[in-house]
Amino acid sequence: MASHEQSIVIRRPLAEVFAYMDDVSLEREWQPHLLAAEQTPPGPTTVGSRRRYVSEFLGKRLENTYVVQLYEPETRIQLETTPDSVVQATTDIRWDAEGAATRVTMRLEGKPKGALRFVPRAMLEATFEKEVRTTLELLKEVLERR
pLDDT of 73-121, one tens digit each? Predict the structure, then answer.
């Protein structure tokens, strides 16, 4: 299973960063390859909430459904894909206050299924590294511009 973890400091208060990232309808603003995102049931996130994402990965359109496994507001969220998803993946995001700023740490672990399972591990890890870095940089840019 490939994995990558990275963090970034955003010059915004923790409550603001968390609230922005917790709103699934805003995820397309800071996730560069995301085409669509929705949460069921709508409303506040809870353990068991399902998030359906349509994205582009390695030039292919992918649909994955994640279930919230752990939810600690303003601290941590962990999501895992459902068995019918094209990637077996876990996303773990943590938020930590650093004075008036917020450190966001994102960890992505995944194992492709189907035709994507033939992607070499080194290529997958490099793709994860780039995806996490690009996502966090865009998140920082969007939030610090507000």
Answer: 999 999 999 998 877 889 999 999 999 999 999 998 877 776 666 666 6
Phi and psi of 21, rounded to 5°?
-70, -25
User: Which residue pairs, CB below 8 angstroms and at least 24 apart, start in 64-68?
Assistant: 64/89, 66/91
Q: Which long-range contacts (CB under 8 A, 24 or more apart) does 14-21 make?
A: 14/74, 14/95, 14/96, 14/97, 14/102, 15/74, 16/102, 16/143, 17/95, 17/102, 17/104, 17/143, 18/73, 18/74, 18/95, 18/102, 20/143, 21/93, 21/95, 21/104, 21/139
Helix (H, G, I), strand (E, B) or coil at 58: coil
CA distance linking residue 63 with residue 61, whole number of Å: 7
